[in-house]
Amino acid sequence: MTSSKLVTNGVRIHAREVPEGVAQKPQISSVPTFITQANASLRKSFAFQIRNYQTNVCIITFPVLICLLLLGLQEGVNKLLDVPRFKCGCQKQNVNGSVAELCGLQYTTNITQARFCQIDHPSAWPALMQVPWPYRGAINATQQLSNKFRHPAILYTGDYPQTAAAMADQLLQHDVHKKGEDSLMYYSKVVTGSSKPLGETLLYEKAFIKDDLYVLQRENCSKYEHFQQFVYKVADQEVPANTTYRCLQTFLSESSSVEDMNSKIYHAAQARIKTRDSQDNDFVTAYDFHDTSVDDLIFNVSVYYNAYRKHSFTRADYYRVSRPMNVAAQAFLRLLAGPKAWRLSLWFVKEMPRGGSQLTLDFSTLLGPLFYTWVSALLFPVVVTTLVYEKQKNLRMMMKMHGLGDGPYWVMTYGYFLALSLLYFAAFVALGSAVDLNFFRLNTYSIQFVLFFIYMNLQIALSFITATLFQNSRTATVCCYIYVFGSGLLGQYFFSFYLEDKDVSRSWIFSLELLPAFSLYRGLYEIQDYATMANTLGIRGMQWENLNEEKNGLKTVFVIQSVEWFVFLVIAVYLDQVMLASGSGMRRHPLFFLGFTRARGDKPGSRALFHRALSRSRSRSQRNVNMESPDVLAERERVEQLRNITDEPHAIVCENLKKVYPGKDGNPDKYAVRGVSLAVAKGECFGMLGPNGAGKSTTINMMTGLIYPTSGSAYIYGLDIRKDMRKIYTSMGVCPQHDLLWEQLTGREHLLFYGRLKNLKGSALSKAVDASLKSVNLSNGGIPDKRVKEYSGGMKRRLSVAISLIGDPKVVYMDEPGTGLDPGSRSRLWKVVKEAKKDRAIILTTHSMEEAEALCDRLCIFVNGQLRCIGDSKELTSRYGDVAYVLTVTTPEKQEQDVIDLVKKLSCNAEWIERLDGTQKFRIPREEVEIRQIFSAMVDAKEKLGIKSWGISDATLEDVFIKVARRAQEEDGEWT
């Protein structure tokens, strides 16, 4: 005979004493490898996704439908825009005797159409000044003399008043009218202006078309004066401008300081606004000559240009600034070299050549980052909801209790969501390009892939973190969708303004980009910006070399998202290990990565609750022990002895296991389990009885690692549940109180998955699955290959029992396994459990006394978290049952009192228990009557009293249960 303790693969193995030469069977199975667990998880996930294909297809095709919707909207709107107004102008001309429609700038009279025309040789015209908005009527002597026309002014100031006045005197050219001179040269010499805004295009100068061109003069405007006709060239053809050129007498007004000049401009504008005459003031421009000096050859001037008008401000209006600056430079030249000095430094302005176009709308670029932020982030609620659902339904914990490690679970879960994301974005980009959306087509695909790939991984990591914050999948779904749509709107209407404002600190933008939603928006913003430029200018979109440009923030986005991807993964793994809300069972010490482990009594949250519970119970612990029944005290002593013998072959040892929940809202703490000590040997089925809320399920949940004990511990073949649950899970089977199953998987697929987690492979796995299905009567009629959602409640329960027993686990916990079963299925289940307990330890809870007597070798009764009695059914019945017979008599209701009188004659101390429709129960003390007397009395009175049936029995297990529970309730004040 030998006794030994082995250590194999880091797992401690206790061995019984066996005869020499007999092979020894280890009590704890070897831990499945990472590959084995990952393979099991992968196969299960693959089967689940095949069954759930409709949801997956909807997720992947969503971006496809969005692209098709965009295409439909884009084509519909472009069809509405396919009208002459939004195309280059065309006219019908007689060409070689036939009428043909010719299109081009020379056939366009509408400036809206002109912007869409091809321009090989753009027109040139003099640079003009912006003068105040139209004046009342034509400019003639009559209007001027009647003071109905307000003459505009030019304001000036400077550090040296004399120099400033001299400069101002040279601003407006005198007597430059020369017959025969080229009109473009002529109007480049004189100071010419217009009250018309330049608009968004330089194809036409509105001053020539709208009859609104003025030559600014200080003198010689006392009469109506015609100036030289300007010849306007359109597409190499001379088109005289239909304009009356007029002289506009302009005054010079000196200001004492810049503040005085600003005040005049401001008050003039306010006066015009109050009279609703115009939004313009009466000043053409204003000059601050600062320290300009002819002697020192210093030319320093600030130009204030007039931008007030009715039309909206556009970038093209900046072209009105060039002429005021040119006028100041010419004035300094004349002041320096004489009044006749002149040098042509600004002759004309013209637009660059460009090709023709037609107004179309590219929704992919128009909607831009907002739309694609929403589409990209729509997988976020899907991932979070799936993770929270598994936690809410305890599906992950069920897998973990059957041996699935955290590593394989996260790797396979991450891999699935990554594959789904890749398909999602691949469908999005592919179809977007197929329907010719410029956002995808004009930018390098490799850049798009890198952006979406990094963000996909970042989003999955963020989902893992977010899932730890929720307990309900519906709440998680709502919150995540609010985040998706809210972050998109904040990006479009908040963050984008910071990106476009050049005065905003880049460090502030960098800080905002640390938020994943804003970093995604910034990346999409950059791609959209390059797509817009490419579509407008006909150049390439985003290329890799563009990432080095100073204003391009995509490289920063890549760096931020890559770093956050890694950091978020680390945080997600950490929170999964230390947060109780993660759904992974017992949490680890916050510093577990430094080798710290939870000490005895340590619990989730803080140790305050444990110390409070310990201090309250210490003063009365001895009294409670003394009040325990002898059989409970004997079990406690047995556990203490087993803990001192390390080679004891008992499978389960619970040592003073306690669970206390902190009180809320001023309520006292709830003592769910009060110092339970018990031992279960291999080959034994141990039953737990007790009313609802007695602490049975809580005790099992602590032993299965679902919740952490407040104090005490349990040992499974010497492995501590507080430290070694990962090893215990490999040889543990659980049938939970509520079925934890995937509705989309079949019964066979469930058993295949859990069998693989128990290291079953090949033919051994197939045989074990078939045997399990047959043992619980699920092998006929195609039941194994039906989805679990098609199972009845009893079938699901039988499947849960089969799952708990597959893979030959050494310890099995069954929480009310017979609930919801019909008598036939329950009888078959009992046979399975009886057969299974031969080679393993089983802890079973039940409310059925019949089930407890049939299956359990020993029983205990829980009341208020306390063990009140323990032993086999016969011991409990004889020890706690009343020393009395239970007599049951059924008679017509009118004879009930006669039956009571008869029983009282047999025993004056007989106790009436209950009555129901003529059936009465009595408790008769044994010492007062012999059983033959009862038989004789019942036979004699049968016909006289009309007795239909009667029976006599000893106390049952149910009677013991009721008696113990009632007594405990009476003592509740002592135990609270």
TrEMBL record:
<keyword id="KW-0472">Membrane</keyword>
<dbReference type="InterPro" id="IPR026082">
    <property type="entry name" value="ABCA"/>
</dbReference>
<protein>
    <recommendedName>
        <fullName>ABC transporter domain-containing protein</fullName>
    </recommendedName>
</protein>
<keyword id="KW-0812">Transmembrane</keyword>
<feature type="transmembrane region" description="Helical">
    <location>
        <begin position="507"/>
        <end position="525"/>
    </location>
</feature>
<dbReference type="InterPro" id="IPR003593">
    <property type="entry name" value="AAA+_ATPase"/>
</dbReference>
<keyword id="KW-0547">Nucleotide-binding</keyword>
<dbReference type="Pfam" id="PF00005">
    <property type="entry name" value="ABC_tran"/>
</dbReference>
<feature type="transmembrane region" description="Helical">
    <location>
        <begin position="447"/>
        <end position="469"/>
    </location>
</feature>
<feature type="transmembrane region" description="Helical">
    <location>
        <begin position="53"/>
        <end position="73"/>
    </location>
</feature>
<dbReference type="Pfam" id="PF24526">
    <property type="entry name" value="ABCA12_C"/>
</dbReference>
<feature type="transmembrane region" description="Helical">
    <location>
        <begin position="476"/>
        <end position="495"/>
    </location>
</feature>
<feature type="transmembrane region" description="Helical">
    <location>
        <begin position="409"/>
        <end position="435"/>
    </location>
</feature>
<dbReference type="GO" id="GO:0005524">
    <property type="term" value="F:ATP binding"/>
</dbReference>
<dbReference type="InterPro" id="IPR027417">
    <property type="entry name" value="P-loop_NTPase"/>
</dbReference>
<dbReference type="InterPro" id="IPR003439">
    <property type="entry name" value="ABC_transporter-like_ATP-bd"/>
</dbReference>
<keyword id="KW-1133">Transmembrane helix</keyword>
<dbReference type="InterPro" id="IPR017871">
    <property type="entry name" value="ABC_transporter-like_CS"/>
</dbReference>
<keyword id="KW-0067">ATP-binding</keyword>
<comment type="similarity">
    <text>Belongs to the ABC transporter superfamily. ABCA family. CPR flippase (TC 3.A.1.211) subfamily.</text>
</comment>
<feature type="transmembrane region" description="Helical">
    <location>
        <begin position="371"/>
        <end position="389"/>
    </location>
</feature>
<dbReference type="GO" id="GO:0016020">
    <property type="term" value="C:membrane"/>
</dbReference>
<feature type="domain" description="ABC transporter">
    <location>
        <begin position="652"/>
        <end position="889"/>
    </location>
</feature>
